[in-house]
Amino acid sequence: MTIALVVLAYCIVIALAQFCLTLSTYLVGFPVALLLAWAPVRLRTFVSGIVSGVAGVTAAVAFAYFTFFILVGPESYGVLPFLASTVPLVIPILNDRAKAQQLSALERDMSPEVRAVTEPTTSAARYAVRGYYVGLFLAVFWFIVRYANAA
């Protein structure tokens, strides 16, 4: 029974980690951008992009942690479940990075008037990817600190 629950937990985490990343990125980024409606566009895209990226990675790791906690047990979260929650995030992060690079390349070819209008979109994509990187760093840091104290 326990092996079946472990396999089920891995399947759930691997299948839904990318969804957690994407959903929480939108659910956090949009309200943060609305809260910063008074701020200049550059500040708003910087803050909302970084915060939404960090929230996306955090949500994926927290989802894996609680999935293993509930299905398998309190001490079941370890290296493999952590990897199962972070490795699937590489695909959407690299896709978003490629999209941000494409937007930047397109923006360079535009006239200054059009570039002024499209710059917030390009900046938001770049900062969201940077937020993903910061979120991955913080997740790895949390994991190392958690297990360094446990040992």
Description:
The protein is mainly α and 151 residues long. Helices cover 87% and strands 0% of the residues. It is built from five helices and no strands. It has helices spanning 2-35, 41-71, 79-86, 90-108, 112-150. Helix 2 (41-71) packs across helix 3 (79-86) and helix 2 (41-71) packs parallel to helix 5. The longest helix has 39 residues, at 112-150. 34% of the residues are buried. The model has no long low-confidence stretch (mean pLDDT 89).
Task: Please describe the topology of this protein.
Elements: H1 2-35, H2 41-71, H3 79-86, H4 90-108, H5 112-150
Concise structural overview:
The protein is mainly alpha-helical. The protein has helices at residues 2-35, 41-71, 79-86, 90-108, 112-150.
- The number of helices is 5
Q: For the record, give the distance between the C-alpha atoms at the N and C termini, rounded to a whole number.
A: 28 Å
The main pleated sheet reads as: none
Report the average pLDDT across residues: 89
Helix content: over 70%
Q: What share of the residues does DSSP label as strand, in percent?
A: under 5%
